[in-house]
Amino acid sequence: MDDQRIAILAHEMFPDRAKTALGVMRYGDQEVAAVLDRETAGTRVHDHLVESDAATIDDAPIAATFDDALELAGGPGDDGIDALLIGIAPIGGGLDDSWRADIRAAIEAGCDVIAGLHSFLNEDEEFATLAAEHGVDLVDVRDPHEGLGVAEGRAGEVDADVVCTVGTDCSVGKMTATMEIVAAARDRGIDAAVIPTGQTGILIEGWGNPIDRVISDFTAGAVEEMILEKGDEHDLLVVEGQGSIVHPAYSAVTCGILHGSMPDALVLCHAAGREAVHGYESFELPAIPEYVDLYESLSAPVADADVVAGALNTKDVADDETARAAVADLEDGIRAPATDPVRFGAEAIVDAIESEVLEG
Amino acid sequence: MDDQRIAILAHEMFPDRAKTALGVMRYGDQEVAAVLDRETAGTRVHDHLVESDAATIDDAPIAATFDDALELAGGPGDDGIDALLIGIAPIGGGLDDSWRADIRAAIEAGCDVIAGLHSFLNEDEEFATLAAEHGVDLVDVRDPHEGLGVAEGRAGEVDADVVCTVGTDCSVGKMTATMEIVAAARDRGIDAAVIPTGQTGILIEGWGNPIDRVISDFTAGAVEEMILEKGDEHDLLVVEGQGSIVHPAYSAVTCGILHGSMPDALVLCHAAGREAVHGYESFELPAIPEYVDLYESLSAPVADADVVAGALNTKDVADDETARAAVADLEDGIRAPATDPVRFGAEAIVDAIESEVLEG
After folding, report:
1. Mean pLDDT to the nearest integer, A324-350
2. Please, what are the domains in chain A?
3. In chain A, what residues touch B246 (CB-CB under 8 Å)?
4. CA distances for A164 relative to A181, A197, B111, B174, B318, angstroms
5. Where is the D-glutamate N-acetyltransferase-like C-terminal domain (chains A, B) (predicted)?
C-alpha cells in the first residue's frame, strides 16, 4: 500500500475521533491527497492538528464529498487520487449508510476502496458489482486469511525479543506508542519491527492479521503466526496491543494477543485523565498498580513479562508542565519510566527496553 | 434435537477421548442407537464405562462403520437411526478424512449429520451436494448465527444470578460440572438453566452460541446475548466455561466468557493430578490459589465474583478415598467447598451457590 495517493473518509470525526485516518497520516507511506469530512469541508488538515502532528503530517484539503476531493486533487489516477480509504471505525465496525455515495463515486472514478470495517466491502452486493464493472479493487484489510489455526505456544522460540503494548482501555494510544517505539528504536540502530494487529496498524504496515476479526479460538494463534514469521528477521518485535484486559467487550482479544505473543516485556499505555471505560462509562478503570499486577500475573504462566515502561497519551492535556506531572504519576503507578511518546518522544521507553530486555 | 435416534462417531477415541460423545450420552435427550469406533467394534458401550456412567447411560452396540451400525440398529428412520453425530473433536477442530465414508453412508441412508467442528459440513462440496440429493440436513452447531456483535456490558442487569464455571485447563470437566450443578439445583427446586458455550453443551441443550467460533471481537457479546435472552426467565444461570485463563491458545475465549457473562460467582474446575497444560506440556499449571487470585482479580473490574466452590474431575483416580483426599486438597487451595460432581454429586457446589449467591 506504499506510495498510493489516497483520499481518507472521516466524516464528522476528523481528527479527534478518526483514529485510523490520523494513524495512516502520521505513520503510513501513503500520500494523502484529501480528507472527506462534511462537517469541516473547506478547511485544511493543518487547521485541526496540534503542533507536533502538524510537523509530521502533510497538509491537505478537506472536502465534503469524494467528487469534491477529486476535483481538488486533480482527478483520479497517479497524479490525483488512486484510492479511497475509510478512515473511521464506529463501535461495532459497521458501514454507515451516509458513506455509500462517496464509495460509489470512488469506484465509478476508477479508484480502489480500502476499509478495515467488520462488514466487508466485498460482501456488499452493490459495491462488489460496481467494482467489477469498473475494474477496481475493494480491499478489506480486516478479512483474515485462510489457514489460521490455534496457537501452539511457540512464540517464545524466536530469536527476537518481543515487547507487547498493553492498555488500560481502548483508544489510549497503543498503536501510536507501538509505531513511536519502533521508530525511536530504529533511530538508535536497533533492528525493530511492528507486529500489527488492528486495521490501522495493518493499513500502515501493509501486512498483518486483523486479530479482532479472526475466529475467537484462533486469537492467540493469529498473533503467534506473525511472531514466528518475523521473529528471526529482527532483534526486537513490538506487538500492537488491543483493548484492555478488563474491557467488558474486548478483553478476549487483549488476552489472546498477550498469550499469543509470549512477550519478554510489556509497555502499559494509558490516557491522561481517563477514569472510566471509553463508551462503557459505568465501568470504572482500576488503579494503575492493579493493571500492572493483572497483566504480569496473567502473563506469567505463559511468558514471564514485566511492565518495563509506560506510554501516556496526553493529547487532551493543555500544557507540557501538566503533561509531565501526569507522566510522573504514571511512573509512580507502574514503578518504571514513562513518557508521552508523541509529545515528548519515545526515548524513555526505548531506554527501558534496551536495559531491561535487549541487554537483560 | 430431542428424541432423535442417533449414531455417534467416535473412532479410536471412545470413551476417554470422546468428550462430545460422552457428554451427549450422559446429558442429552437423544437416544443413542450405536457408537462408531473401529478400534472397539464388536464390544458394547457398557464394556467401557465406569460404574457411575453405566448407571445413567444406556447401553448400545459399537460398530466399525455407519453401515454396520445401521444394520445393528434396524435401518434408518424413526425405529432405527435418524442422524449421525460426530462425537469427537481433534485439536484444531478439523474433519478427519477417515470419517468421510461414514458421513457419506449416513447421508445416502437418508440420515442427517450433526457436527460441531470448526470446518463446516455445509461448506464441504461433496457432502453438501450429496445431502441436497438425498434431502437430508447437515447441521453445523459451531456455525454462529448472523447478527452477533460486541458486548454492551449489560449481562449484570438480568434478574437471575449468574455462576460461571472456570477452569485450570481445557478438558477438566467444566461442561460436565455445569450440567451436574444445574441438575442438582433443579432437584432442589431451584429454577436453573445452562448457558451453553461449546459444541457439546449446544448439542445437549439444543441451543447456544459456539463462543470459540465467533469473531474474536464478539466473544463477550455472544455470551452476553445468551444471558440477556435467558436471564429473566430463570433464577440461576450456570455458564459453561471454556479453556483456561492461562492457556497458551484458548485464554481469549475464557476471558471473553468471564467478562461477557458478568458472573456473581465462579466455580473453579480442575482435574486431579493435572500438572501441565493438556497438549502443551511445556507449560506448567500455576498453583490453585494463583488461579483463584487471577480469576477473581480479572473479573473484579467488570463483575464482582468470588470462587465459591470447586469441581474436581477424579475420573483417573482409582478409589473413592484417594478421590476424597484430592477434593480436600482442592478445598484447601480455593478456601471453599469442593466435590467431584460426577463421583460424589454436585450437592456441595449447589450448597455453596445457595448460601453465597442465591441468598447472598
Report:
1. 97
2. 5-140 (3.40.50.720), 155-358 (3.40.50.300)
3. 259, 298, 301-302
4. 11, 11, 50, 31, 45
5. 150-350
